[in-house]
Amino acid sequence: MVDILHRVGVVTPSPEKVYDALTTVEGLASWWTDDTTGSAEVGGVLQFRFPPGGFDMKVLDRRDSELVRWEVVDGPTEWVGTTVEWNLRQDGDHTIVMFKHKGWREPVEFMHHCGTKWATYLMSLKALVETGKGAPSPNDVHVAYPD
Amino acid sequence: MVDILHRVGVVTPSPEKVYDALTTVEGLASWWTDDTTGSAEVGGVLQFRFPPGGFDMKVLDRRDSELVRWEVVDGPTEWVGTTVEWNLRQDGDHTIVMFKHKGWREPVEFMHHCGTKWATYLMSLKALVETGKGAPSPNDVHVAYPD
To answer: Which spans of this chain does the record mark as coiled coil (chains A, B) (predicted)?
Structure first.
């Protein structure tokens, strides 16, 4: 089992805006993909769609301004059953975002791609909170093409 | 042992320019850090310096337009003994860069940071080859601050 791990620091006085961007359909649509639907409550399922396909994520857990956990319940075979975990904490004028996409069965080429792509989406989340404008799909940063 | 894995696709007709950017001091200085010195030949040591510190990398292996491998011989404790491996292959009009920073002993917070930061440097390498201009330190993309 192998994991994708990332960390960004978002300039913002409290974790609230980052947490909102991870726990509302409008927030998620503003940095990951504008085609986001579903329920962001615990037990709910979020549908994230991109031009090449997408993911359904069940919300396993959320704790105000601290934690969000999803399980991938539909999408590419390599993703199904993996979990995505966000931990937030405040450090001075930054919200530190610790990101884990856990439980990949093998370090396949697609996992390498997703590792880089997640980084660009985390930078989109950071930009959204800091500037009001993210780069969600279909206006996302391309790390290869098509991606 | 845990690894940082990434993949980018660089629009270029052959892997030659990417390989040059990984195997010459001038190339490395144009996307990773402008304070790069040393020898990029097999058995040589490269010194990469950034405002907060740096790394010395011994060149373990290189094969024209295919492979580069370094071992970290000096730098932060977490990095020493880890290896950095670049595999290149051509796929149509893209050079596919498969990147592995292997052998981290623990998935510490610093590893999360380095995972994100490597992604931004890979995007700098991609930009260098595609546009002639990368974003090496000290003009690198910040994923937190200081970083």
So the answer is: none
Q: Name the fold adopted by A2-131.
A: Alpha-D-Glucose-1,6-Bisphosphate; Chain A, domain 4 (3.30.530)
How many CB atoms sit inside 10 A of residue B20's CB? 16
Query: Within an 8 Å CB–CB cutoff, is residue A135 touching chain B?
Result: no
Q: Which amino acid is at B142?
A: H
pTM of the complete model: 0.97
- In the numeric block, the tokens 């498969």 are attached to B98
Give the count of Cβ contacts less than 8 A between chain A and B: 95
Which of B107, B89, B108, B111 has the alpha carbon at shortest distance from B98? Answer: B89
Q: Which three-class secondary structure state does DSSP give residue A68?
A: strand
* Average pLDDT by stretches of 10, chain A with 147 residues: 95 98 98 98 98 95 98 97 98 97 96 98 98 97 89
CB distance B112–A123 less than 8 Å? no
Residues B116-132: tens digit of each pLDDT: 999 999 999 999 999 99
Instruction: Name the residue with tokens 């740096």.
Output: B54
